[in-house]
Prior knowledge:
alpha+beta, 2 domains, 10 helices
Amino acid sequence: MIEAKGTDLIRKGSADEIVAKRDRALDLYTRGVQLLADAVRVHMEVGGTSYPSLTTALDRNGIHLIEQGRTAEVVEALRKGLDGHVWEHITGALGLLNLMNAAQLEAFQEQNRTAPPEVTRDNLTATFERLTAESDTMFRQGVIDLFKGLDRKFASNPAYRIGEKLIFARALSEHGGWNHYGGRQAEMRDLDRIFHLVDGKAPKDHRGDAAAMVSQMSRQQHGGTVETDYFEIRTFKNCNVHVRFRRPDLVAKVNQIIADYFGAALAHETRGARRRRAA
């Protein structure tokens, strides 16, 4: 005969104790979930985001770590998500993200995803003092990097300047929209951002900038024209994009940035050559 084991369990631990521990566990879960909800709300406020991405830390592996009592690892994953959002939110609010080109922004975001510094008073003060001091250099370097990338002949051009037009070769997909290979969409976005900043205006959101306008138009027809305050942009059936500048005054300002950079670089190279000859 098979004996029921339920009564044995009740004998080994009183029913009152079982119920008390169950109620205690449920109470802790309830308070924990409420505290987590409160943390999410504060995270969204300080991080300027609607997506705190808890699933990054509280995925199956995170839950497994909690079950094993390895809570410090879960807390560190939550800390990275929180601090990464705080750095990006504050940097954006101060307008410093607008000064970064695509490569600089990608590096900044990668650091925020993988190893964001801890948000402390000292770190905040030191970081933003440094970024503010370097903001002009950061912007100017972004201008140089963009135009060197747009035209391989640019750096060897003795004039070190841009003319009336730029050509983005094979920039579009045959099916409409930007070609995801080659980074031309990011370069068009950088170009639009730079001209806004040189004009003393805030860059447009990526959903409404020149790159977005080209993408939308190219999905509707192969070959057409988009005009903004700064550019006349023509697309062609061979997937090329021609950008003609509409503001010669802004082109002159950009060319001055380029000339200042290459002038300093040439002067440095000349001094180095003289020292080598003297040696």
